[in-house]
């Protein structure tokens, strides 16, 4: 083994990318991609997302403690990158990028229409982590695009693919081959 000289987190990338949809103090919807996310609990169903404290999304989450967690597919690659390339403080991202939104059932922030899946969550806690806070979202409702999932999750293939963020504008795709571990 040798000492790695790059940024430590690059060795655990690429990571699944989500887009947080929030309501901000000015009443606008803000959208921010985040690849530092993970399931955190089954009971209650909880997703954790790390958010840098200087972002507008951080301010929006502190203002209105709900968000949609949108799972973009490959058809949303350019949009995902563009949403992360500017601040909602300066730009109305929904208007600027013509994002089509759909109403949520359990929370105020809307979801992004063409997402593979949309989680509706409310903040149930935060954990400080360096320059970020990890937001814990209790998931109140889950919507999935018709035909893209089964009991194992997303049906990764030609028409369905998960965006994995590498670094900057680099994304990876999952190539489909399902493996089942042997039983004892």
What does this protein look like?
The protein has 184 residues and is mostly beta strands. The chain has one domain (8-173): Roll (Pnp Oxidase, Chain A). The protein has helices at 56-63, 77-83, 93-96, and strands spanning 15-16, 18-23, 29-34, 37-41, 46-52, 66-71, 101-102, 111-112, 117-129, 132-144, 149-150, 153-154, 163-167, 170-173. The protein is globular. GO terms for molecular function: FMN binding. Its cofactor is FMN.
What are the main properties of this structure?
184 residues; Pnp Oxidase, Chain A; 3 helices; 3-stranded antiparallel β-sheet; 7-stranded antiparallel β-sheet; globular; mainly beta; 10% helix
Query: Would you tell me the structural class of the helices and strands?
Result: mainly beta
Order of helices and strands: EEEEEHEHHEEEEEEEE
If you compute it from the alpha carbons, what radius of gyration comes out, rounded to the nearest whole angstrom?
A: 17 Å
Q: For the report, how would you describe the main beta sheet?
A: 7 strands, antiparallel
The residue fraction in helices comes out at: 10-25%
* Quaternary class: single chain
> Quick check: average pLDDT?
94
- What is the count of distinct domains? 1
CATH class: Mainly Beta
CATH topology: Pnp Oxidase, Chain A
CATH second-level architecture: Roll
Number of extended strands = 14
